[in-house]
Amino acid sequence: MTDAFRFPAEWEPQSAVLIAWPHADTDWGPRLAEVEDTYVALVAAITRFQPVVICAADDDLQIYAEARLRSNRVDMQRVRFVASVEYDDTWLRDSGPITLAGRDGEARFKLLDFRFTGWGGKFEASRDDRLVGELSSMKLFHNYFAQTIDFALEGGAIETDGAGTLLTTWRCLHERHPEASREQLSTRLAAWLKQDRVLWLDHGYLEGDDTDAHIDTLARFAPGDAIVFQACDDPQDAHYAELAAMADDIAALRTRDDQPYTLYPLPWAKPVIDEGRRLAASYANYLIINGAVLIPAYGDAADDAAAAVLARAYPDREIVQVPCRSLIWQNGSLHCITMQLPQGLLA
């Protein structure tokens, strides 16, 4: 790992969290009021600890979002808007910048702009695919350069420990690049993301997830060579066998020192059925920020138990529940709508 840049872990210091405000022309339109409530709660939670940068499609949307946040007594000193930004939807984990930081500790950055294809062409994504370039032209960042990479990859598909190990799923990467072998994909990911090894999970999925098994819905690195993962303890559930096999995959992984990872299985929420379809209610889709971990809450009895697991995995951080039942209606959750910006990146 001799490159001048590295891929920091999510628990490292951040400048801000980047989000995009929902509006009627996104897929949130039919349930916009419910989703706005979640965004207000999310911004309120983030600004307790650090700044948030909010993309708005136009000036009117910015004025409206500001009014909603002020009426909920959000700390507006920690809110920064970027107006007149075009986006098809608000899943910035997948359309936003993947940021590498200077290895020597200097505040210099490389923004990786991979192709965003709407999760393998499932949805229109042309404006989302231009988002990183658009943000780069707005003097939002400093001491950086952007690198455009002609390769389909979403931020939710990759997880790093900040020390050179990448975790991902074969199902997702193979779906995006069926012509490539695992060895070829490992080589490319390691080169672009400055990793020296790539770990793969062969099992794991959530019904209602249209990302083809993004890792951030299934398993996440935690400090101290640990992995937090979504478990299923209901033998009657359709996910039971697959998530048990995933748990075996994770248990077989080894750290750089050839030791097993410390494992933190998350509890399983009861099925959430909406208009006849099951929604992907994963607790693994949490967001790490400065001093806290924000965990999605679904109004389920397992919410508190999941928060308790994260309290053990992140003992030095406050665990904050954010209501996210409205988000899973569109097949994603808390981590999916956010992208952290490393400390020093924000101008």
Automatic annotation (TrEMBL):
Pfam families: PAD_porph
GO annotation, biological process: putrescine biosynthetic process
Recorded GO MF terms: agmatine deiminase activity; protein-arginine deiminase activity
SUPFAM superfamilies with a match to the protein in the record: Pentein
Record key words, sorted: Hydrolase
Protein name: Agmatine deiminase
Organism of provenance: Pseudoxanthomonas dokdonensis
